[in-house]
From TrEMBL:
Residues 1-10, 241-253 have a biased composition (Polar residues). CDD domains: SANT. Pfam families: Myb_DNA-binding. Signal peptide: none annotated. The lineage of its organism: Eukaryota, Viridiplantae, Streptophyta, Embryophyta, Tracheophyta. Residues 1-30, 142-278, 294-320, 373-400 are annotated as: Disordered. Residues 222-233 have a biased composition (Basic residues). It comes from Quercus lobata (Valley oak). GO terms for molecular function: DNA binding; DNA-binding transcription factor activity. GO terms for biological process: pollen sperm cell differentiation; regulation of pollen tube growth. It is found in: Nucleus. Its main location: nucleus. Residues 29-81, 82-136 form the HTH myb-type domain. This is Uncharacterized protein. Residues 14-29 have a biased composition (Gly residues).
Length: 564
DNA sequence: AAGGGGTCCAACCGCTGGTCT
DNA sequence: TAGACCAGCGGTTGGACCCCT
């Protein structure tokens, strides 16, 4: 997660003027730290939560000595340290679900997050805001044609976006598709409109989606994968498959219903928005590839590992797994090597049966890790940054041919496979291209043949997208792989650097540089205190053997003393 | 190579609602 | 009942990174 380096360099700027980053604020005499969290702070917080459970966040600061306000602790825990967090780019299914949820709930991020297991409201919010900005700039509607926002929960932001949508529909209904009108930035009326929308949901797309009057959803863990396997990705270019709409959850006076569009050909299986073609003038850029592991600590799950889960129990919604095998370093590809999430720390985590780091070796490893990276914000600890994959070959700069469309759609599909979420944008473009190419002949939508071609192309790329997007991008969750278990999360926290990794000498430098070359620019002036806190948290063993922790490839986590 | 724009995301702030005293 | 406290939510900010020009 490249952006994890954000706010680096600010953390130590005391009184730098910015409210964020490094400033320290007094609260009742205590000095509260702001800015990026360090791994040491994370460890303290995790340990505290492990001992005392969630809640009572203000007590964290009081009892743990963590110089963070309760709110900050809660946020850190909720967004980064909490078990079972799913990091990385949103899957197409998740993106689709976000659309649907936003259509229903508006900017109720927490509510949306509740239906997206492993996702935080902050993530969703960021995603949505980015999407809003992007689509505003591109003059695209926020929602696919088959998702109509509900008026039930309109926040100001949503009001704005819905108003845009409405205006766009109005515009679309008044203009012909071939009108080469330059898309101006959508106006955002300040007076909220009070339209009544209705929502259409593809029940078969998201059986877990509570909107539709369908049977109760399957467990979330099943949900996503099943979607990947059984569900056509829902997007606008899908007339070749039947679209099953549930009944409208809000039936009163839909302000703009695709089926009521002035374009009488609009059906649920056809385009309902007709975007003027600025599209080519401002081609959509592929999102840059980013490391999608994203966990603030360097240990997101490694799908490539051969780790198997032998025991999986649920305790307070925390999955507890015990890895039984670990891919040796030598078997890892070069791209896997930096992913130290391959290393499983053989401890279990349970609120009911908390464990302590009980040996000096464990503590030493922990401290070694921190000593290497203690001055980094924990979010920067991932050693697997920045392996930019070769960019997608740009779409051939040819005329607006079907090939172009297919290329774009295919690329979109490939990108979609990476969870970049531009598929709809690209499909919109493809659609607009088709419109501009075919003019009124096809009225406002691709002919069935073309659409099927596009869709087939999409499906083709969908199937191969995992290969296409693989360089530098960690694949999504592997089916059946339970990620983000508590155990893994704890291992993430407690094993910033695996003992089996040769530690480059420069990791110890005070510059905060890590192997990925990124400069944290962040120093934790309180790191000494933090480490004392950590040390105070964990009882020390009697002996110390520092040679254990940094030998090369000779020490597997499996060989470590068990915890508990 | 440098600058600008876009994107991402962590973390802040202010506000709100619930609970407790 | 009022005030204090707390947890949570949504909006916003700001820095790093990436791509394009």
């Amino acid at each position: 997660m490249a952006a994890n380096n954000s706010t680096g360099g600010v953390a130590t700027s005391e009184g730098g003027g910015s409210n964020t980053g490094g400033a320290e604020s007094g609260l009742g005499g205590a000095t509260l730290k702001k800015g990026p969290w360090t791994a040491a702070e994370d460890a303290i917080l995790v340990e505290y939560v492990r001992k005392h459970g969630e809640g009572n966040w203000n007590a964290v600061q009081r009892n743990s000595g963590l110089a963070r306000c309760g709110k900050s602790c809660r946020l850190r825990w909720a967004n980064h340290l909490r078990p079972n967090l799913k990091k990385g780019a949103f899957t197409p299914e998740e993106e689709r679900l976000i659309l649907e949820l936003h259509a229903k709930y508006g900017n109720k991020w927490a509510r949306m997050a509740a239906q997206l297991p492993g996702r935080t409201d902050n993530e969703i919010k960021n995603y949505w805001n980015t999407r809003v900005k992007r689509r505003q700039r591109q003059g695209l509607p926020l929602y696919p044609h088959d998702i109509q926002p509900s008026s039930q929960t309109q926040s100001p932001n949503q009001t704005q976006t819905q108003t845009q949508l409405q205006l766009q529909h109005q515009y679309q209904s008044q203009s012909t598709p071939t009108t080469p009108t330059t898309p101006t930035a959508p106006t955002t009326p300040t007076t909220p409109t009070t339209p009544t929308f209705h929502f259409q949901s593809h029940a078969h797309h998201h059986p877990s989606f509570s909107l539709s009057p369908t049977p109760p959803p399957p467990p979330p863990s099943h949900h996503q994968h099943q979607h990947q396997q059984h569900q056509h990705h829902s997007f606008s270019l899908s007339p070749s498959k039947p679209q099953h709409f549930t009944t409208n959850t809000s039936t009163s006076l839909p302000l703009f219903d695709p089926t009521n569009n002035s374009n009488t050909n609009t059906t649920p299986s056809s385009f309902t928005f007709h975007r003027p073609p600025p599209i080519l003038g401002a081609p959509i850029r592929f999102k840059r590839y980013r490391e999608t592991t994203g966990f603030s600590l360097p240990l997101s799950p490694a799908p490539h590992t051969t780790t198997t889960t032998t025991t999986t129990t649920t305790n307070n919604n925390n999955m507890i797994t015990s890895p039984t095998s670990i891919t040796p370093l030598g078997q890892l590809s070069s791209t896997q090597l930096p992913d130290i999430s391959c290393f499983k720390f053989p401890l279990t985590y349970s609120h009911s049966a908390p464990q302590l780091i009980s040996t000096q070796l464990e503590l030493d490893q922990m401290m070694s890790a921190y000593s290497m990276k203690q001055e980094l914000p924990s979010s920067q600890l991932s050693p697997q940054h920045h392996h930019p994959p070769p960019p997608h070959p740009p779409p051939p700069a040819t005329t607006m041919s079907e090939i172009t469309i297919d290329t774009k759609v295919s690329a979109a599909a490939a990108n979609r496979g990476c969870g970049n979420g531009l598929l709809e944008d690209l499909l919109d473009e493809a659609h607009a291209l088709a419109i501009s190419n075919q003019g009124l002949r096809t009225q406002s939508f691709l002919g069935v043949k073309e659409e099927k071609r596009v869709f087939d192309g999409f499906k083709h790329w969908e199937g191969s997208s995992t290969i296409d997007c693989s360089p530098g991008v960690k694949p999504k969750e592997e089916p059946g792989v339970q990620i983000n278990t508590m155990q893994e999360d704890l291992s993430k926290l407690l094993n910033v650097i695996p003992s089996t990794m040769q530690i480059p000498s420069d990791w110890y430098s005070d510059s905060g540089e890590v192997s990925n070359g990124q400069s944290s620019g962040v120093t934790d002036e309180n790191i000494g205190i933090d480490m004392q806190h950590i040390a105070s948290l964990f009882p020390l063993g009697a002996t110390t053997d520092h040679s254990h922790s940094r030998t090369t490839g000779s020490c597997s986590w499996d060989n470590l003393p068990g915890i508990c």
